[in-house]
Each structure stands twice: as structure tokens, then as C-alpha cells.
Amino acid sequence: MQPTAEDIAYLLEEGRALLPGLDIRKERVRYAYAGLRPLQKVAGGPEAAITRRHAVIDHGKLGGARGCTA
Predict the structure, then answer these.
(1) How many alpha carbons lie under 13 Å from residue 40 in its C-beta half-sphere?
(2) CA–CA separation, 53 vs 2, rounded Å?
(3) How would you write the pLDDT of the chain (70 residues) with one tens digit per residue?
(4) What Gene3D superfamilies does its record include (predicted)?
(5) Is 34 within 8 Å of 7 (Cβ atoms)?
(6) Could you give the C-alpha distances from 49 to 25, 35, 37, 40, in angstroms and in order?
(7) Does pTM top 0.85 for this prediction?
């Protein structure tokens, strides 16, 4: 699913309020999703135990795409 224009506006506004020095703009967003949110990858254990907290992960440091954070 794609996020609605209202979803995007809300999240950009909240991001600017929380992180005012980062120049958060729609043009700088690389991808977006709506609906089910992805969870962090963990080794072993039940899915119910996976944290729902937000985390910023630099995928380039983990062998993934450089410049892509989630």
C-alpha cells in the first residue's frame, strides 16, 4: 500500500519537530510504505517477542545497500 498525502504530511511535520536540524523534506524520502510495518530481524525466539520500538539501522554497515537506513 502507498501512504496517503495526509499520512506523508503528518509524518514529515512530526519528523521536522523531532529532528529540526535534518532538513526533512518529501523530496529526500527514498521510499515509503503503509499498512503492516516491518519488524527488526532477530535470531531465534517467538515473533511476539520482537520489539516494536523504532530503530535507525545503517544497512551499509551490515553489508546491505549503502545510503539506505531504516
Answers:
(1) 15
(2) 22
(3) 789 999 999 999 999 999 999 989 999 888 888 887 777 777 887 888 888 787 777 878 888 777 765 5
(4) D-Amino Acid Oxidase, subunit A, domain 2 (3.30.9.10)
(5) yes
(6) 34, 20, 15, 11
(7) no
Q: Is residue 68 part of a domain?
A: no
**Separation between Cα atoms, residue 9 and residue 56, nearest integer Å:** 21
CA 66, CA 59: separation in Å to the nearest integer?
6
Q: How many domains does the chain have?
A: 1
Q: How far is the C-alpha of 69 from the C-alpha of 31, rounded, in Å? A: 11
Is residue 70 one of the residues assigned to a domain?
no
